[in-house]
């Protein structure tokens, strides 16, 4: 293994480090290794040395991740006003931000177009009338046209966007829209398309076809002197432990070949590839229940913590972080969350060392679309996030409290906020008597006698 292997497996994470973090910060807890984020950025830039490389920030907008990627020199691809704000706050200058507006709400456009350096940002429009809308707000900066390439791919039908009518200007109208934009005084700098998310294996041929079509379109628009042709993100990562990683160099070569000769630069915008294997989710076993069909292992992280299994039937590897001595028998089990929904199952038919209440588990590849898609459904506060960097760990996002659930409700009489420590309650790691710590090791109530466990 080199210092920068193509994939970091769940087994590669040091159990002792993760156990210490769970003890200090409680569970459920996301852990992001910023050094791994840098490694992934370096590998992408190495494979695509002549391309504009942007990070699709929707995969993980944690400030720590954005600052880390800003410092590597990649650009930011943003899909919403909030993402633009967070990229700016993390230090990306407007000139390194592309705002790709999908059916943008007026409020988003108001914000983006009124920014001090709005005209240094590239705005990508996916519908003809978005031109009118940004023009009405005074935007006359660099403009990119999102094209619907008519081919899609991805790890699940819900993320295969390329052929969905919602996204982009239909391919056969894209040339006219780009020319209209130029005639209206915009500065058309690029064209853009995205096949979908989590592409590998057979999906790569759809990606190649998309790139070929975009190359053809760019040649038709040669007189506009486009600066770049963006072919989206979507580079898949191996969620299953035995799945091989993407051969990034081969993808880069195939992409360049499919694009053909162009005056414009190639641009890519992966999200997942930068951050997926840089993150794990730590969770504690709450309940172990024998049923006729399986052993149900109830954990303190659910679909509100990590939505991907419920939303996309996504597979995430799970590993016990308990010491392997004394050895335990392997048990086949279903690993379920605490949300009252049938969909709230992290995995079925998984094998764990004889699960016991209080065991600490790690869930792999949780760095992309993990914390980012978490929610407060079932009135569950969101977990904390810890950033690891060169052996140092720091709280990157504090744990929400019950008070956070109602903070914005009018008439809330108890919205006095969290203690900001990020410490949560769990069956392990909470020290009785500390500011936010409430020992939950006894299910009959809080050990320090306080009613409120948050
Ligand atoms: N670009 C666009 C336009 C997207 O919609 C997405 C994801 O949905 C991405 C890039 C990033 O995809 P991924 O995280 O799979 O690389």
Ligands and ions found = pyridoxal-5'-phosphate
Give the rounded overall mean pLDDT: 90
CATH superfamily of the largest domain: Lyase, Ornithine Decarboxylase, Chain A, domain 1
Query: From N to C, what is the helix and strand string?
Result: HEHEHEHEHEHEEHEHEHEHEEHEEEEEEH
Shape: globular
- Alpha-carbon distance between the two ends: 43 Å
Secondary structure blueprint with pairings:
Layout: H1 15-25, E1 29-33, H2 34-47, E2 52-56, H3 63-72, E3 75-78, H4 81-89, E4 97-101, H5 106-113, E5 122-125, H6 128-136, E6 142-148, E7 169-170, H7 171-183, E8 187-192, H8 203-220, E9 228-230, H9 248-259, E10 265-268, H10 272-275, E11 279-290, E12 295-299, H11 308-312, E13 318-320, E14 330-336, E15 345-353, E16 360-363, E17 384-389, E18 392-397, H12 402-405
Parallel strand pairs: 1-17, 2-3, 2-10, 3-4, 4-5, 5-6, 6-7, 6-8, 8-9, 9-10, 12-14
Antiparallel strand pairs: 1-11, 11-12, 11-16, 13-16, 14-15, 17-18
Helix pairs in contact: 2-3, 4-5, 8-9
The structure holds pyridoxal-5'-phosphate.
The site of pyridoxal-5'-phosphate has 18 residues, from α10.
């Amino acid at each position: 293994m080199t210092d920068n292997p193509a994939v970091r497996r769940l087994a590669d994470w040091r159990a002792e480090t993760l156990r210490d973090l769970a003890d200090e910060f409680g569970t459920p807890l996301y852990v992001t290794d910023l050094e791994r984020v840098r490694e992934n950025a370096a590998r992408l830039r190495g494979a695509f040395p002549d391309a504009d490389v942007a990070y699709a920030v929707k995969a993980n907008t944690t400030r720590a991740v954005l600052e880390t990627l800003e410092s590597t020199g990649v650009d930011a691809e943003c899909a919403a006003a909030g993402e633009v704000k967070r990229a700016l706050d993390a230090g990306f200058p407007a000139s390194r931000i592309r705002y790709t507006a999908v059916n943008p709400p007026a409020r988003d456009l108001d914000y983006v177009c009124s920014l001090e350096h709005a005209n240094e940002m590239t705005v990508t429009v996916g519908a003809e009338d978005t031109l009118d809308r940004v023009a009405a707000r005074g935007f006359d900066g660099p403009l990119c046209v999102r094209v619907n390439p008519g081919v899609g791919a991805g790890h699940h039908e819900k993320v295969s966007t390329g052929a969905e009518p919602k996204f982009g200007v239909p391919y056969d109208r894209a040339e006219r829209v780009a020319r209209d934009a130029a005639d209206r005084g915009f500065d058309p700098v690029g064209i853009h398309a995205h096949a979908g998310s989590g592409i590998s294996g057979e999906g790569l041929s759809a990606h190649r076809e998309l790139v070929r079509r975009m190359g053809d379109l760019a040649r038709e628009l040669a007189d506009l002197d486009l600066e770049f042709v963006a072919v989206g993100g979507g580079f898949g990562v191996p969620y299953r432990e035995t799945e091989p990683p993407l051969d990034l160099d081969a993808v880069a070569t195939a992409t360049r070949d499919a694009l053909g000769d162009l005056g414009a630069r190639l641009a890519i915008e992966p999200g997942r590839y930068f951050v997926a294997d840089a993150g794990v989710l730590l969770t504690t076993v709450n309940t172990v229940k024998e049923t006729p069909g399986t052993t149900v292992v109830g954990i303190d992280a659910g679909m509100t913590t990590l939505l991907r299994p419920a939303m996309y039937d996504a597979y995430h590897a799970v590993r016990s972080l308990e010491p392997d001595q004394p050895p335990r028998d392997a048990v086949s089990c279903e690993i379920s969350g605490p949300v009252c929904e049938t969909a709230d199952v992290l995995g079925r038919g998984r094998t764990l060392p004889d699960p016991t209440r209080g065991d600490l588990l790690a869930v792999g590849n949780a760095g992309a679309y993990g914390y980012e898609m978490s929610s407060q459904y079932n009135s569950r506060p969101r977990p904390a996030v810890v950033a690891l960097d060169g052996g140092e760990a720091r709280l990157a996002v504090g744990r929400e409290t019950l008070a956070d659930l109602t903070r914005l409700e009018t008439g809330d009489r108890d919205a006095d906020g969290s203690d900001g420590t990020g410490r949560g309650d769990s069956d392990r790691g909470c020290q009785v008597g500390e500011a936010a710590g409430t020992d939950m090791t006894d299910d009959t109530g809080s050990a320090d006698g306080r009613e409120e466990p948050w």
